Please model this.
Amino acid sequence: MKKKHALTPLALLATCSLAAAQSSVTLFGIADATLQYGAGSTANRTQLGSGGNSSSRIGVRGTEDLGGGLSAGFWLEAGLTLDSGTFGTTNTSNQAAGTSGGGGLVFGRRSTVSLAGTWGEVRLGRDYAVQYYNRFEFDPFGNNGVGSSQTNVGSLGGPVSSRVSNAIMYFLPSGLGGLYGELQHYRGENPGNAGPTADDGTGSGVRLGYRAGPLNLSAAHARTRFARTATTGDITSSNLGARYDAGPFTAMGGIYRDRVETLGGLVGRGVQVGGVYRVGTGEVKAQWSQYQTTASGTPQTKKLSLGYVHGLSKRTALYATYARVRNSGGATTALNGAATAANQASSGVDLGVRHTF
Model:
């Protein structure tokens, strides 16, 4: 393990050196550290965390003009746990346990190569799942920190809820009168003789949206195949997000549905509404979200989130977020590492600083 960690920063530097030969290369990242407090009926917790406002990361991206309106590009982005200095993320790709892949992912946030032109963009590698865009783009907290929407925290989307590996993606070009979208197909890459699990982790998705003036609407649908058992099965996720900008205020919200085709069938439904109010160099954020499933007892968690971000400059900000959840139906959701008994509440606070480069 020590050898692996020692090589990781060197690998990043080597990547940057090799990328310097490209026509346009950018080193970028976010450093975000948070003092977190969580309170629950069973146990409280205080800790230093990472990514309370924006996920900490480091990456390098580049493009090359090939002429005739065609360009090539690459994007390598690694997650960074700032409080411990750890690179990489847990493998939450579309592979199920026991299939290809596994272990930590150095460039687990994104690793792609692409070709783009007037016809759109084809992208290969690991990137966001189509349904995840609507979970963070219409969340005032960007699905970060204690304020993130419960519709994503409680999602039944499993290993494909946020990112997919082994993906082939096509993005519509700009200039279509506000229309945008993406088609996505990803492979589980299991042996053909694996029996019922041969197709595990293979799936497809589509996202289609319309953006014009202050209005942004987007719908997404994805289906991933898994062998059906008492606890697993094909995962289907569908959602709809909306956003409207009215001067200094932005209103947003969404509805979400996930289904896991277990032998008995399991469905999760969520809704969230929120907004951002910009005042001076700061932003006031608020959101209410709810997620429930058809599991025994119909567990449900409702969440209220309030936050403020104060910009010290274009790249540096201080922030504070408060959130509280109420559980019912046997749910035990707790915030910031606290623990709470079934049907009991939990609250959490983030105090942090974020710097982008």
User: Anything to note?
Assistant: DSSP finds three helices and 20 strands in the chain. The first strand starts at residue 24 and ends at 40. Residues 120 and 173 are 4 Å apart (CA to CA). The longest helix spans residues 2-19.
